[in-house]
Amino acid sequence: MNNLHTTLRIVMCDANREELERYKKICQEICEAASVKAVINAFSDSQALLFEMNDQAFSSRVRLMIIDPDGGCEAAASRLRKEGYGGVILYLSRSTKKEYYQQAFNANALNYVEKGDMKRFAEVFKEALRAARQLDSQHIMVSNAGEYRQIYIHDIYYFETTTNHMVCVWHAEGKFTFQSSLFYLENRLREHGFFRAHRSYLIALDAVRRISYDEVTLSNGRSIPLARGAYAMLKRIMADGGSLSRIVI
To answer: Which residues partner with 141 through β-bridges?
Structure first.
C-alpha cells in the first residue's frame, strides 16, 4: 500500500562528495541507533536537487534537509523556503562566512554546525530528527494515480469508505480519495484522536459538535451515522478527554 508514508526522507546537499558520503554514513548510523526508518538522498549538485524537488511526489515527502552552503547549495534552501517548504533545514559546513549564517537565519534553519565537531553534529542531528518526526506525525501523505496530498491531521473531519479498498478523506481544504482501508487508518490514527463511528466512517474527535443516539454532527455541518453501541462509547471518550463541554447531548 503506497499511500501513507511513514519513512522519514532526508536530503543532503554538499558539493564536496567525499564529505557528503562521510556525513551521510554518520546520519544513517544515528538513524539506525535511534530506530528511525529513514531514506537519505545525497546531492553534490544543487541544480540536481532543485530538479528533483520539482517533483511533488519527492519534495512533499522530504522532512529534513542538510545543506552545505559552499558550492551553491545555499540557493536550494532559500528557494525551497520561498516556495513553501515546511520541513527542517540544518546547515553543515566548514565555512564560517557571515553571509552563510545570515542565509541560514533567513531560511529558518534549525541550526548551523561546523564540520569536524562530530559530537555537536550528532547532538544537533538528533534534535533535527526529533523535530522532523514531530512534523511528520502532524500530517498524513496520501496518493492516488500519481497525485499526492499532504493533509494536516488537525484539518481532517472524517474518513469515509467509498468503494473496495478506497477511502475519501474530508478535510478543511476539500476532499481526496485514495487507496486504503478504515481498519488501517483507525490503527494509525487512534492516538491522534480518531474514532470509528460506523463501519464506513472514521471521525476526528476534535470535529465533533453534537451527539445523538444514532448520529454525530461534525464542525463542517456533516452528520455521520453512529453504529449500534457507539453512542455510549463516544460519549464516554469525549467525557474522558475533557471535551464534553463542547458537546450538546
So the answer is: 150
Q: Please, what is the Cα angle at 29 between 24 and 35, to 5 degrees?
A: 125
Cell digits for 122? 550528532
pLDDT tens for 181-218 read 898 899 888 778 899 999 999 999 989 999 999 999 99
Per CATH, the homologous superfamily of domain 151-246 is LytTr DNA-binding domain (2.40.50.1020)
Residue written as cell 496518493? 143
Domain boundaries, the chain: 8-137, 151-246
Grid cell, residue 134, equals 514531530
| Range 8-137: architecture per CATH | 3-Layer(aba) Sandwich (3.40)
Sequence-ordered list of residues with C-beta below 8 angstroms from that of 121, at least 6 positions apart, any chain = 23, 26, 92, 113, 115
CB neighbourhood size of 218 (10 A) = 19
The answer to whether the pTM exceeds 0.90 is no
